[in-house]
Each structure stands twice: as structure tokens, then as C-alpha cells.
Amino acid sequence: MSMFRPKKMELSGFVNTLALRDYCKRKAFEKHEPERQALRYAIRNTALPQRVRAQAQLQLSQMHCYTRPTQIKNRCVAGGKARSVIRAFRLGRFQFRMQALAGELPGVKKASW
Amino acid sequence: MRNLAFSALNKSNQATVPRRGISSTESESKKDTISPPDTSSATEWSERLDSLSSRARLPRSVQAVYLRPLRRSSEYGLPSCDLQLRSYSVRNVEFFADFAIRAAYYLRLPVSGPVPLPRIVERWTFPRSNFVHKKSQENFERITLRRLIQIKDGNPEVVQTWLAFLRKHAFYGVGMKANVWEHETLDIGRNLDESTSDVEKSLEHHLSQFGRRKDGEALGSLSNVLDAGRLAHNQAPLANIRRH
């Protein structure tokens, strides 16, 4: 969504359309998080009138999907893969294997026990 | 190498000037004349070094490097700092733990440790190929080694100096984490009361920044804020087509 695309982007690692989209989603979520949390609070607060809570519910459901945290997906920094990405290294499994065998990941060795 | 070269020279001399009877003696004499300076210089050096080590000694601080690190004994045993060192290699973490203990000794800090804490083993298993072939997999592991060094009865300032020194001479591949405790007198309540005026003065600038925004006051309560939003003109929910 172009409206969520910042003018200036601090990108690093593997960049393609999907990586760009994920970056925009992260930015959008960061920007709208207080608003989302305020609405979530209003929905769950039983002290508020029912009408207000219903309105808050509607507003939250009408917010753009880019502002949702569930839209964010971790991607491989080296290859851009979205599946089987190791959180500790931010690498896909094959990239991790290649880099580990090349000795580029400190402390990672082939294990046998 | 040098001796070899000389012997080769002697041999060539023998070959070119074949003088029986004298040649052997001459070559021997030549050997005597040429080789002695080398051996004598070597013996001289070793002798000189031996005499030096017998007569003089290394400075105590340098001698101490070859021995186990010295320690101060603590009087009360109150812990004031827990330093945890982490690394993936035994050599680095052992070396730096030793260094930290020596540094603590020279700063007159009683120290206990290094305590070897349990290793952290992380293991991963992945298929060898980049696509399918799940039957052939590979294991990887990363073992983090930890050492705990505890400072006891340390003056907070000296402990900070020690930590700063370790940070300055941080060793490659060794991470550090410190928990620092400070001890107060029993009059802590009175001390806090006395210091409140200073704290308030220092916070005055920041506290004056607090308050409600002027443009936010127009909307008033939360229900007003929600009414003023885009839902205000919607009579019934889901009556209109969603815009996004």
C-alpha cells in the first residue's frame, strides 16, 4: 500500500517487493500502535458505556490491515525467504547452513552427540 | 647453517688442494679457527643469561603473571558485584576471567571465582538441501560458556572503576554482564527526605513539560473523541461499504 510507504526507507539485507512490503507494515504498525491499544482498552473496559465500547470495536475493525501486528512476518536477511527463518540469526534454514559451514556465525558448529 | 657452510668450504679446499699429511691437520686447524667464535658466543650468551637470572630476578608483578592470581580476603562477605563472562571459546573466557581477577587484586577488591556456570547449549536441525529431501538432515550447535566472578565488600566507586577497566580492555569474543549492588545505611529514609528538595529542583524543568495538549482539550471526554471520529455520521454499522 503506497500510502504506508515512507519517503525515506532504511533498508538493509536482501530487498525485493516482499521485503519492502514487510518493512512498510512494520512502520505502519509502529505508527498506529498507540491508537490500537487505546481502542482495545476502550473495548475491554466494562466501566465505559456499551455504545462507546461498540464504537471502539467498529473503529478498531475498520483500521487498515497494515496496522495489525499479525501482518508482520520475519524474513531471511540474506535470501528473503519467509518460511523456516531462525529468529536468533534472522536467516532462512539453507542460508543458515551455508553460513554456519563457512564459519561466518560465531560459535555455531556441526553438532554430533 | 653457518657451520654447514664452513664445512662445505673446507671440503672444497681439500678437493682443490690435495696435500697429503698436512691437509688433514690444516683442515682441523681451520675448523678450530673458524668454528670456536660461534660456539663461544653461544656459550657466552647462555652464560650471561644464566648469570643474569641467578643474580637478578623479574619484577614481582611480572613474576606473578606466571603464577596463580592473587586474591584479597573479604571481611564481611557482602556481595557488591556479580560479573558474568560469556563466550563460545574456553580459552578466551578463561583468559579474561584470569585478567579480571588480577585487575581486581590490584584495585584491592576481594573477589571470589571464577565459578563455571552451566553451559548453554543451543541445537538446530535442518535439511541439508535447500528444498525438500527431509530424510537427510544436519545438526548444528552453539555452546555458550559462562564464568561468574563475584566482588565482595567492594566500594561502589572502585567497583565501577574495575568494570570500566574491563570494558576498556574488553577481550574479543567475550561478553560481559554485571549486576551491581549498593548498600545503604539504616538512615536511608532520612537521607531520602533530605535529598527530595534537590531532586525536585532537578526535575522541575521536566515536570513543567507535563500537562494536556491545548488542541486536545477541545474534544473533551473519550466518548466525545469517539463521536467526533469518522463513525459520527454512520447511522448504522455496516450500512456503508467499507472504504479500504
From TrEMBL, chain A:
Top-level taxon of origin: Eukaryota
UniProt entry keywords in alphabetical sequence: Ribonucleoprotein, Ribosomal protein
Annotated SUPFAM superfamilies: Glucocorticoid receptor-like (DNA-binding domain)
Alphabetical list of InterPro entries matching this protein: Ribosomal_uS14
Gene Ontology BP terms: translation
Pfam families membership: Ribosomal_S14
Repeat keyword on record: no
Molecular functions (GO terms): structural constituent of ribosome
GO cellular component terms attached to this protein's record: mitochondrial small ribosomal subunit
Family that this chain belongs to: Belongs to the universal ribosomal protein uS14 family.
Name this protein carries in UniProt: 40S ribosomal protein S14
Annotated organism of origin: Aspergillus campestris (strain IBT 28561)
The organism's taxonomic lineage, starting at the top: Eukaryota, Fungi, Dikarya, Ascomycota, Pezizomycotina
From TrEMBL, chain B:
Stored Gene3D superfamilies: Ribosomal protein S10 domain
Gene Ontology biological process terms, A to Z: translation
Transport in keyword set: no
Top-rank lineage group of the source organism: Eukaryota
InterPro entries: Ribosomal_uS10, Ribosomal_uS10_dom, Ribosomal_uS10_dom_sf
Any one Pfam family match given in the protein's UniProt record, by short name: Ribosomal_S10
Compositional bias per record (Polar residues), positions renumbered to this chain: 9-26
Keyword annotations of the record: Ribonucleoprotein, Ribosomal protein
Domain Small ribosomal subunit protein uS10: 82-179
Location of region: Disordered: 1-45
GO molecular function: structural constituent of ribosome
GO CC annotations, alphabetized: ribonucleoprotein complex; ribosome
HAMAP family per UniProt: Ribosomal_uS10
Family: Belongs to the universal ribosomal protein uS10 family.
Protein name, entry field: Small ribosomal subunit protein uS10m
